[in-house]
Specification:
Elements lengths: L1 E2 L10 E9 L9 E9 L5 H11 L19 E4 L2 E4 L5 H4 L3 E5 L6 E3 L2 E2 L2 H9 L22 H5 L12 H5 L1 H5 L6 H11 L7 H8 L13 H5 L6 H12 L5
Parallel strand pairs: 1-3, 2-6
Antiparallel strand pairs: 2-3, 4-5, 4-6, 7-8
Helix pairs in contact: 3-7, 7-8, 7-10
This protein binds iron/sulfur cluster (SF4) and FE2/S2 (inorganic) cluster.
């Protein structure tokens, strides 16, 4: 086990074991775990421990991050068996002396903890993640396309999606159907279908009315359990089905 240098002997810190999955698809057949003894404080995040290892011991560990504040959606990974944002997960909340970090499930691995997002972005783009309207210009005497608080309430939680992919990583159907559109894209389909300003409902419902679309969801609900932004993709999928079956309009 390697010891990260730096503040390891700080009396106010405790030491945890960080296990990092290492994998290079160009030469490895399976993941190997490297262990590091890392100093942590009450507020230390998992991302900070990984960056400690990169800075003090092995700079070749591949990890994606940017904002460090649960906004950009870059740092999703499996932490002690559950999809989480590394920058939004404090080591202390894991209540374990060992922290194991692995790449997200259901995403191809680029290297170590970094995964490819092409499938997520492709499916997100497929459902037309924007307001569809014929009248793209406001007449001079018209107001903006206003909404009531009640209309906003219909979709606002779904607008919080940061495209981190944790829901797709947790989804058992994503693991078995490589063409499934996935909970992230379906939740965003609902977000726009439920927006009173949007006129693209029929075309969007047609896109997801497919054997690899909305009907492929088995309602496991794991997507909603892992979302760090309070989005409930499983509920969005059920509400979308209401539109498709004529219970909503
Ligand atoms: S719905 Fe939640 S878990 Fe899924 S991509 Fe959006 S923010 Fe991430
Ligand atoms: S670094 Fe941006 S969400 Fe974690």
């Amino acid at each position: 086990m390697a010891q990260v240098s730096g503040i390891a002997d700080d009396q106010s810190s405790r030491t945890k074991t960080l296990r990092i999955a290492r994998f290079n698809p160009e030469k490895d057949t399976e993941k190997q775990f490297m262990e590091f003894s890392v100093p942590v404080e009450k507020w230390t995040t998992v991302l900070e421990t990984i960056l400690d290892v990169k800075k003090h011991y092995d700079h070749s560990v591949a990890v994606r991050y940017s904002c460090r504040q649960a906004t950009c959606g870059s740092c999703g990974m499996i932490i002690n068996g559950k999809p989480r944002l590394a920058c939004f997960t404090k080591v202390s909340e894991l209540d374990s002396d060992v922290v194991t970090v692995e790449p997200m499930n259901n995403f191809p691995i680029i290297r170590d903890l970094a995964v490819k997002f092409e499938r997520l972005f492709d499916t997100h783009h497929k459902i037309k993640p924007y307001l569809v309207r014929d009248d793209t210009e406001l007449e001079s005497d018209e107001k903006e396309f206003s909404q009531s608080p009640e209309e906003l309430e219909q979709y606002i939680q779904f607008a919080n999606c940061i495209k981190c992919g944790l829901c797709n990583s947790a989804c058992p159907t994503m693991a078995t159907d490589s063409s499934f559109v996935g909970p992230q894209a379906l939740a965003q389909a609902y977000r726009y279908v439920a927006d009173s300003r949007d006129k693209g409902k029929d075309s969007r419902l047609k896109i997801i009315d497919d054997s690899h679309g909305i009907w492929r969801c088995h309602f496991a609900g794991s997507c909603s359990q892992v979302c760090p932004k309070g989005v409930d993709p499983a509920m969005g999928i059920q509400l979308l089905r209401g539109y498709m079956l004529g219970f909503r309009s």
